[in-house]
Write a structure and sequence with these properties.
42% helix; binds manganese (II) ion; Xyl_isomerase-like_sf; 11% strand; three-stranded parallel beta sheet; binds the ligand C[C@H](O)[C@H](O)[C@@H](O)C(=O)CO; globular; manganese ion binding; 14 helices; rhamnose metabolism; cytoplasm; L-rhamnose_isomerase; alpha/beta
Length: 427
């Protein structure tokens, strides 16, 4: 039988099995098709950006590996992204950083404007890929001592406050153009390598700086402010100003979106268990779906238990309309387009698995106190034919089935990315 016939036959058998559990496969696929993952641009060029003399990546961010073919310009990055999206089922978003503006000559972070992102907004409209945004509080001389919005120097703080205000205007313009909110996520690296004499003062300064940035009420239909916590970074092992407690309190008290990054907590701490607690108090969540390995918070997302648990929590809590699903990983040791495909396909696969769970039945068993059946059915769920439904979804949306996408990456590498070498940087 042809591959298509195999895919179809396997899907029909799988659908019968799920149906027998009371799971509506078509409804699950319909819901999945409406979820737009915010794919992070910075995997494509190792978080370098296009400022020209951009400072070396620092402030707790590190990319390892030197796989050839990194995108060096906005056009190259857009080309790589188009290939990546062609390998991922569904319509998704692009998460941009302020570093990725298209600048004719030096433009400092406090001077950036919408005009520097017209190329991205035009591309977004052509590709029907909506945009999210991030101010860039790193890789800049004014971030060289590890502090930005919490800096003790008022002049440096003001520079970064102005950057945040500029970024909110850009995000609002993106949201107005695309007709839905551009999630604008604030992460600052501020913290100390060693024990601080005052944990209090930088946190008071950070809250005050953020309040100044957010002073102007911008329509939530155009942009949503998000704030991202972190436990530690390279060079801020002893103290991060923007801790989970800090931003949880900030988001609740200022009605902001809280960003939970899966790599930003203690190695044994998971964000899946935080979702339902946080959503008791904050309006919406932004997730940076990632994978922490040892000290690194940014490994390519694999089909892990925690990834499955995150998606189960979103579906079991009926939170799809309150959770913005972003990705955050940067791996320069493998083909960068492949990294996007692997991470995004895994996130969608895990979401499909959660949508194919007999959730109402499990929750009824729980309400009835039948914890035996709850566990038994949860375990049986693990060997249900998810792959057959996933392959059908890929084929029905016109993207490669199984690992066939890798051949597309190889072809693109052979014809395009392998021909890039730093000496031939196109201006
Ligand atoms: C580039 C991103 O802003 C960055 O990864 C941030 O989201 C983060 O997770 C820092 O550790
Ligand atoms: Mn993150």
């Amino acid at each position: 039988m042809s591959n298509t016939k195999n895919v179809r036959a396997a899907f029909e058998l799988a659908s019968e099995q799920y149906q027998a559990q009371g799971v509506d496969v078509s409804a699950a696929l319909q819901k999945l098709s409406r979820v737009a993952i915010s794919v992070h641009c910075w995997q494509g060029d190792d978080v370098a950006g296009f400022e020209g003399e951009a400072g070396t990546l620092g402030n707790g961010l590190a990319v390892t590996g030197n796989y050839p073919g990194r995108a060096r310009t906005a056009d190259e990055l857009r080309s790589d992204l188009e290939v990546a999206y062609s390998l991922i089922p569904g319509k998704h978003r692009l998460n941009l950083h302020a570093l990725y503006g298209e600048f004719d000559g030096p433009v400092d972070r406090d001077e950036i404007g919408v005009e520097h992102f017209r190329g991205w907004m035009d591309w977004s409209r052509e590709q029907q890929v909506d945009l999210d945004f991030n101010p860039s509080y790193f890789s800049h001389p004014k971030a060289s001592d590890g502090f930005t919005l919490a800096h003790s120097d008022a002049g440096i703080r003001q520079f970064w406050i102005d950057h945040g205000i500029a970024c909110r205007k850009i995000a609002a313009a993106m949201g107005a153009a695309q007709g839905n909110a551009c999630v604008n996520n604030f992460w600052v690296p501020d913290g100390y390598k060693d024990t601080p004499a005052s944990r209090k003062a930088p946190r008071e300064r950070l809250a005050s700086s953020l309040d100044e940035i957010f002073a102007e009420d911008l329509p939530r239909s155009q942009t949503l402010d998000a704030v991202e916590c972190k436990l530690f970074g390279i060079g801020s092992e002893s103290y991060v100003v923007g801790s989970h407690e800090f931003y949880m309190g900030y988001a609740i008290s200022r009605n902001k979106v809280l960003c939970l990054d899966a790599g930003h907590f203690h190695p044994t701490e998971v964000i899946s268990d935080k979702i339902s607690s946080a959503l008791m108090y904050v309006p919406e969540l932004l997730l940076h779906v990632s994978r922490g390995v040892r000290w690194d918070s940014d490994h390519v997302v694999t089909y892990s238990d925690e990834l499955q648990a995150i998606m189960q929590e979103i579906i079991r809590g009926d939170y799809l309309d309150r959770v913005h699903l972003g990705l955050d990983f940067f791996d320069a040791s493998i083909n960068r387009v492949a990294a996007w495909a692997i991470g995004t396909r895994n996130a969608l696969k895990a979401l499909l698995a959660a949508l194919l769970e007999p959730t109402e039945q499990l929750q009824q068993l729980e309400r009835d106190g039948d914890l035996t059946a709850r566990l038994a059915l949860m375990e049986e769920q693990k060997t249900m034919p998810l792959g057959a439904v996933w392959n059908h979804y890929c084929e029905s949306t016109g993207v490669p089935v199984g690992a066939e996408w890798l051949e597309k990456v190889r072809q693109y590498e052979s014809s395009v990315t392998s021909k890039r070498c730093d000496e031939s940087v196109v201006s």
